[in-house]
Design a protein that fits this description.
heterodimer, A: 295 residues, alpha/beta, two-stranded antiparallel ribbon, 10 helices, 36% helix, 22% strand, B: 172 residues, mainly alpha, three-stranded antiparallel beta sheet, 12% strand
Chain lengths: 295, 172
């Protein structure tokens, strides 16, 4: 159990940003403990979808849980199946689930990953980062414009881990994100742990990236932690956040000077038994304290 | 872009070796330790999901040392979607065709439980050539199946009408 007074979400963690957390439903005891500590609940439609015959639909039980929040926390939708960067078009299932969700809940914004997960209808089983080329930028911008025109909601894209070496391109990582956000007006999610994975696995220069990135576009930060396997840091969201990740997130919140609205702690539902409710609650408390310390 | 994405799909799913590709970038990826780790990452994600979604079949495969091999086969053969809910049914459908009768029966039983949980009325019948009681109890308790199991013919009926969700009957 938490041993300190748990602050109320009625008072955001700091003047800079609120706190968000993943919740995939079916664990009301965890939700009850997290809710006083967070300002936002991040929902992944694909994770709360159920298969009914040939049709995928949002779980009515989980949707009832989310409706019962009744404004106690704002809802963020964070998809994983859109595959916005596939050369042959995106996956419409994300939109079907998003629309089903929007029919039932007020959503602060929705977001996806700057990546592709399928090619010619074949699933990769993992997200691959886009090549940072003019061709890719044009394709993504056109699709982001279409999404923003279709849904009158802010739309954000997140940097993903580079699980294979980056392809030659016309832009740096930050340059591509700056151009994308400037051209379309979309927001960015910066995943601090993904940056650390890239630094560890690929020698990615986080300092140079942060120097070049226009932080005004960063609306949300993700913090998480995975496991190390064969010397690689894996993006699996199974552990508590490392101090270095938290430090990185704090730096970006400070430098974005009010642009970042939420720092979201992400963990996968499969990790809950290993982490335990107490540890998740302590993590959220630590996150609140860290943000409250910001000048 | 299309050609590069198609080749990367082949590399990630081990259907293309890329070693002599005309594109030096594809050759770099093909020779990289990152690619091996990416494939392992895909396997680990599937393992985590399957452990949660089909614990009985998962436990049996693990106790027989066959988990990695079958999840690997699942990744190579099936077009696995990012929807967690679809992964376990597809995996169980694949495992249920395997010649190991106990494995096939456990996976069919778990698939039937899933169908009922998803609202199908059934009933679903699963035949066994060993006593299901001991198998299911030990798997549910995550204990090894290291003692002899009585052979014979049993029928398990899974249905929302059955008290507890299923019944076991000896048929021969």
């Amino acid at each position: 159990m938490a041993t300190v007074a748990e602050p109320s979400a009625a008072h955001p963690a700091s003047r800079f940003a609120g706190i968000g957390v993943t919740y995939e439903g079916r664990d009301p005891a965890l939700l009850e403990r997290m809710l006083p500590l967070v300002d936002y609940i991040e929902v992944t439609p694909e994770t709360i979808a159920e298969q009914h015959g040939d049709r995928l639909a949002l779980s009515s039980a989980v949707m009832a849980e989310l409706r019962a929040l009744n404004g106690a926390a704002k809802i963020l939708v964070h998809g994983v199946s859109l595959s916005i960067g596939s050369h042959d078009g995106w996956a419409p299932s994300y939109f079907q689930l998003l629309e089903e969700l929007l029919d039932q809940l007020d959503v602060a914004w929705h977001s996806e990953h700057l990546a592709y997960t399928r090619v010619d209808g074949q699933h990769l089983g993992i997200m691959l980062a886009m090549a940072k080329t003019n061709e890719a930028l044009d394709l993504i911008c056109e699709r982001v414009d279409a999404i923003q025109a279709r849904y009158k909601l802010p739309f954000l894209l997140e940097n993903v881990v580079h699980v294979v070496p980056d392809a030659p391109g016309d832009f740096s990582e930050a340059g591509f994100l700056n151009a994308l956000a400037t051209r379309t007006g979309c927001g960015l999610i910066l995943d601090a742990y993904n940056l650390e994975c890239d630094a560890h696995n690929q020698g990615f220069d986080i300092e140079a990236f942060l120097d070049e990135l226009d932080h005004r576009h960063v609306r949300e930060l993700h913090v998480a932690c995975g496991v190390e396997d064969n010397g690689f840091l894996l993006d699996v969201h199974s552990r508590l956040v490392r101090p270095s990740t938290l430090d990185l997130a704090e730096r970006v919140v400070r430098s974005a000077n009010g642009a970042v609205q939420v720092v979201t702690y992400e963990f996968m539902p499969e990790a809950i038994p290993g982490l335990g409710h107490d540890a998740i609650v302590q993590q959220l408390l630590e996150l609140r304290r860290a943000l409250a310390r910001l000048p | 872009m299309a050609a590069q994405q198609r080749k990367l799909l082949g590399l990630v799913r081990s259907t293309y070796d890329g070693e002599s590709d005309s594109d030096p970038y594809i050759r770099t990826v093909a020779a990289s330790a990152d690619l091996l780790e990416a494939r392992r990452n895909i396997l680990l994600w599937r393992v985590w999901v399957l452990e949660r979604m089909c614990p009985l079949t998962f436990a049996l495969l693990k106790s027989r040392g066959a988990l990695g091999e079958l999840v690997d086969a699942f990744i190579r053969r099936c077009n696995i979607s990012p929807f967690r809910e679809t992964q376990a049914p597809e995996f169980l459908d694949m495992v249920s065709t395997y010649p190991d009768h106990v494995l096939a029966s456990v996976s069919r039983f778990e698939r039937a439980l899933m169908r009922v949980r998803d609202g199908e009325s059934g009933p679903f019948e699963v035949t066994w050539n060993v006593d299901p009681h001991l198998v299911l109890i030990r798997l549910a308790m995550q204990l090894p199946l290291d003692e002899p199991i009585e052979e014979g013919a049993w029928r398990v009926v899974v249905s929302p009408q059955e008290p507890g969700g299923f019944s076991i009957e000896r048929t021969g």
